[in-house]
Amino acid sequence: MATMVETPPPPPPPPPPNPNSLAQPTPAAEPPSPQGPWLGPRRPSIRLTSEFDSDSSIFFHKISCKFLDSLAKLKLSFHNNNDGEIFDPQLGFISKHLSLHYDLQNHNALIKGCFDVGSRFHFNAAHDVKAQQGEVAMVADLADPGYKFELSSVVPAAGFPKATLKFPLGEISLEEKEEEEVKKTLSINGILQNQILNGVFSAQFKDDDLKLRYLYKDEQLSFIPSISLPSNAISFAFKRRFGPSDKLSYWYNLDSNYWSTVYKHTVGKEYKFKAGYDSEVRLGWASLWVGDEEGTAKSAPMKMKVQFMLQVPQDDVHSSALMFRVKKRWDV
């Protein structure tokens, strides 16, 4: 008779992990890079931007890419017409402290550089190789915040450098001026502004001309009268906002009786409609923007900006023109 062997019971399951335990789980191995170690670093992205203006029938193209971990950028731009002719090609190298722009058609280069000495002194320089001319500037941040002192001069120097003092209420410049049949004189230019009542008063002076301007602005209304001396030319601007999407602007020059007006309606940041009239050129117009007018094509829907404009001359309505402009960006 066969003897039956009793099978031992299975081992108990392992206890659940203790949440208070300091032991960390072993991370899973990362999948290998799709490029593989033999392909080296990732290829820098290339940006292509094209723009077309129907008024001039000219295309503008710009190709750029960043490299060295975005420390520098290489840029190529050119224009072409409907016949395929390429003109005004430009090649540029741009970095934080040095930039080089080379004109392939005129064989000329513009070199710009900047560097800092400590935290308060900043130096800038520019040189046109073909013209053998340039400019150097030094900007010093003074001890008090909001105050800066700048010295700038053309190269080769033709006189004393231009000195500019910037402060919270404006700036004043002193430079040497030379006119025909007149000896060199010192010219003082600048602008001063200050808060008065509920607006900002500014005085801008250059040589013998003085322009006084006052800006009153609240959430719905802006009023800007100005006068130029010694010509006594008076003008004013009036702007009225009707809600967050509608705005009306009006300019009037009392000296010439010319006036202009613009109405603007926006839908978000992507759509904007404008319509206006200018009495000096006797022209009415309307414009529609698809994409932020002040922004870049990168932030626009489908990375494309489109503008349509209709111009209607008052004296010849039959010569009205419809124009458009398109700007598109591709990331490769």
What does this structure look like?
This protein is mainly beta. It has no helices and 22 strands. It has strands at 46-53, 58-67, 72-80, 86-95, 98-103, 108-117, 121-128, 133-141, 148-155, 162-167, 170-177, 185-196, 199-206, 209-217, 221-229, 233-241, 246-253, 259-267, 271-278, 283-290, 304-313, 321-331. The chain has a 22-stranded antiparallel beta barrel. 2% of the residues are buried. Residues 1-8 and 17-38 have low confidence and may be disordered.
Entry keywords:
disordered N terminus; 22-stranded antiparallel β-barrel; 22 strands; 332 residues; mainly beta; single chain
Could you tell me the mean pLDDT? Answer: 86
Q: Give the termini separation.
A: 83 Å
Q: What is the C-alpha radius of gyration, as a whole number of Å?
A: 32 Å
Q: Which segments are poorly predicted (pLDDT under 50) over 5 or more consecutive residues? A: 1-8, 17-38
Tally of helical runs: 0
Q: Total strand count, please?
A: 22
Largest sheet: 22 strands, antiparallel, barrel
* Residues in helix, %: under 10%
What class, by secondary structure content? mainly beta
Beta fraction of the residues?
A: over 45%
What is the H/E string? EEEEEEEEEEEEEEEEEEEEEE
Described by the principal axes of the CA atoms, the overall outline is globular
Oligomer class: single chain
Q: In brief, what are we looking at here?
A:
With 332 residues, the chain is an all-beta fold. It is 0% helix and 58% strand.
